[in-house]
Amino acid sequence: MQTFESKIPDGPIKEKWKKHKESIKVVSPNNKMKLDIIVVGTGLAGGSAAASLAELGYNVKSFCYQDSPRRAHSIAAQGGINAAKNYQNDNDSVFRLFYDTIKGGDYRSREANVFRMAEVSGNIIDQCVAQGVPFAREYGGTLANRSFGGVLVSRTFYARGQTGQQLLLGSYAAMNRQIANGKIQLYARREMLDLVVIDGKAKGIITRNLITGEIERHGAHAVVIASGGYSNVFYLSTNAMGSNVSPVWQIYKKGAFFANPSYAQIHPTCIPVHGEYQSKLTLMSESLRNDGRIWVPKEKVDAIKLQFSEIKPNDIPEEKRDYYLERRYPSYGNLVPRDVASRAAKERCDAGFGVNSSGKAVFLDFAATIKERGKEEIEKKYGNLFQMYQKITDVNPYEEPMMIYPAIHYTMGGTWVDYNLMTTIPGLYAIGEANFSDHGANRLGASALMQGLADGYFILPYTIGNYLADEIQTPKINTNVKEFEDAENAIMERLKSVMLIQGSKTVDYFHKRLGQIMWDKVGMSRNEKGLKEAIEEIRTLRKEFWKDIRVPGSLNNINPELEKAGKTADFLELGELMARDALQRNESCGGHYREEFTTEEGEAKRDDENYSFVGAWEYKGEDSVPELHKEHLEFEYVKLTQRSYK
Amino acid sequence: MAEKILRKIKLKIWRQENAQSKGYFDTYELENISTDASFLEMMDLLNEHLIMEGIDPVAFDHDCREGICGSCGLFINGRAHGPDNDITTCQLHMRKFREGATIVIEPWRAKSFPVIKDLMVDRSAFDIIQQAGGFITINTGSAVVANTILIDPKSAETAMDAASCIGCGACVAACKNSSAMLFVAAKVTHLANLPQGKPEAKKRAIQMAKKMDELGFGGCSNTGACEVECPKNISISTIATLNREYLSANVDQ
Prior knowledge:
The complex is a heterodimer of chains A (about 650) and B (about 250). Chain A is an alpha+beta fold. Chain A has helices spanning about 15-25, 30, 45-55, 95-105, 110-130, 165-180, 245-255, 300-305, 325-330, 340-355, 365-375, 375-395, 450-470, 480-500, 505-520, 530-550, 560-585, 610, and strands at about 35-40, 60-65, 80, 155, 185, 190-200, 200-210, 215-220, 220-225, 260, 265-270, 295, 320, 360-365, 400-410, 415, 430, 615-620, 625-630. Chain A folds into three domains: about 15-265 and about 410-470, 3-Layer(bba) Sandwich (FAD/NAD(P)-binding domain), CATH 3.50.50; about 265-410, Alpha-Beta Complex (Flavocytochrome C3, Chain A, domain 1); about 480-610, Fumarate reductase/succinate dehydrogenase flavoprotein-like, C-terminal domain (Methane Monooxygenase Hydroxylase, Chain G, domain 1, Up-down Bundle). With about 250 residues, chain B is an alpha+beta fold. Chain B is built from eight helices and seven strands, in the order E-E-H-E-E-E-E-E-H-H-H-H-H-H-H. Chain B has helices at about 40-50, 125-130, 155-165, 170-175, 180-190, 200-215, 225-230, 235-250; strands at about 5-15, 25-35, 75, 80, 100-105, 115, 120. In chain B, strands 2-1-5-3-4 form a five-stranded mixed sheet. Chain B has a two-stranded antiparallel ribbon with strand order 6-7. The longest helix of chain B has 16 residues, at about 235-250.
């Protein structure tokens, strides 16, 4: 068993990564050719890791549940990617990006990890440009930037509102080159069902072929989990329908600690919920807050008229509008961080100022910008987002303000990893959104893409060598051994048992009910009573699931309901851990907002003395309470203050 | 957002157990569908009913449900992605359909995209085409500093227009020859418009086009059907770029 140590290198923060790279072991080219690495997930983290590791000479096996690596949900990231290039000459720097990220994360992330991410951020842009990512350009041909929430500089690089797509197609292209070279073996339409640990080290995975239903064994000298986040525990989220916690949950049950599960991000600018049949929520990029102004009516009577469609938003005169973010946070205005903007919207709606029939929406208005700079400019910048909005809502946002409401978007929590991105299981790594490492209790906009690519292109390819250098004598992993057989048998058992129940409720029924509990009691604001209730309710629901679920079809054919059942079963366990983690954290920080712990102005109130730690949970068996381990966070370079965006 | 309810609709859906079996149409009725529901949410409701009735639910590909991953693709009433322009199937909403309508739902039909179950097809041929040359040869770590490559905004915009292809396959499904010309042309045009992509531009055009032929996609029909149904508005002028790159590469050889 690996020890629970962060392994942060000594020395000044600016030297740590450099010195660490110099001191860690390197594998020779001819030995790399003998080593196999499994990468689960093909998003920005998994795709960039698979490509970079293959370029180095390792044999990579890459897995995704979609029909092609290009469909991973990183593709949906819209607004941009941060990098401390200081191309705008606005006094940006690696230190400032580091500082903003630590502050934005409400002082709940590791200084050393965050600094390293900021350090490599510039290389990411270089790499992506070289791959042919068509970033936006200035007239002179240089790269353009925009600004994002929570910062005072413009450091976000973008490709219209499709930055995630373009970056992902870049890493996908790099993967394709290595697939053609024979260095990546691609396994699409595969679902990971378990991790195989031999003599305490990660040595492979079990997968299900989603076409044939075949259960497959795959061995490797190291396993990398890049399966993304777990927002779908809330049922309605901005994640793709297939996004899931399952690989992260499987490794948790095999001994990898799960850190800060309760840190989930609510994104302030999503299209409001419209009906019971709704299957997912759609995000409108945060970049829209650059040019759009957020408001609700000043007077409740106007809000009520809007709720009953008696008046149109444009009927409300300027002086009767409450631009509440600009009012409450004059220095950041509409560009406050996501958690702050989300809570402010909820506060106004809870107070009765919501603007749609459900009372759960605020306006995001572009009229002033369109008047000032013209429709063309807005169209050029956000055309695809406006089109998307209109297709979904049937409202033309060039003429009427958009309606938005917060929704679950990203999870900062994830598998605990050390400085090398290794989990508590030797040889097992977690990268991208799947790990917990860089965003603390709240992620800043345009930082998810940065972290995924930092991990995959520039960090893991170095740190994994330090472990693999000791594995060069290990021959190809033999999958005809007891450990693989046991894992496979346990999976078959579980698959068969879920099919046998043939109860009276579909998977979606359970998933929706879980989502409702999570949103009501483990969502944007939480309290002790609600969290305790959530734990009990989730346990009851879980029991009901295993008694009354109905999964149609067969095990050996394409069976989407079977896939959903497995994912939902895991969410039903994760939900409880999230509530438990939220309950132990008697403070508010970032996305974790406990009603008992707030300032007089209603802002999140941290307790640095008692809660300045990473909460890492260790699985103790099905009916036992997991054990909490604490990694204390040291802050040497950033002074802890109450976050203020006023 | 004036919500209305479609009291009754009829769905004529292609059912097929697996790649080997023979397919057929089956008809289902569905009641009380909100016009604000998306097309795929309507399909979800259908499947909920089918499961409770003990009928195998209809399999279809989908994931992001916001029009960008390219997973979904249904042939609805004879049109790829259905009766609306510039969208994917997941962005289609029920407000585009009338009370009592019969909606015919089929998978993409193309030799190179075999049906694997119901409305799901195998599009791995698209990945194989990309592997034949849809990239710039650059290893991680060897890139030059970003702003040393200047790109005029017009070229960047043209590249971006083409790069927005989501690989859904609607172009192939819409083409009477099941040609993948627009798909290949989009990638070739994206990279040929950037200085970084120029060194390999000709080789790329030749290799990708060759692979497309090998995989059984037909020749360009010149009808422009692909452009009409492309959810991302990829222009057929990209095909002219592909032809130009291809021809000049052949002249060089």
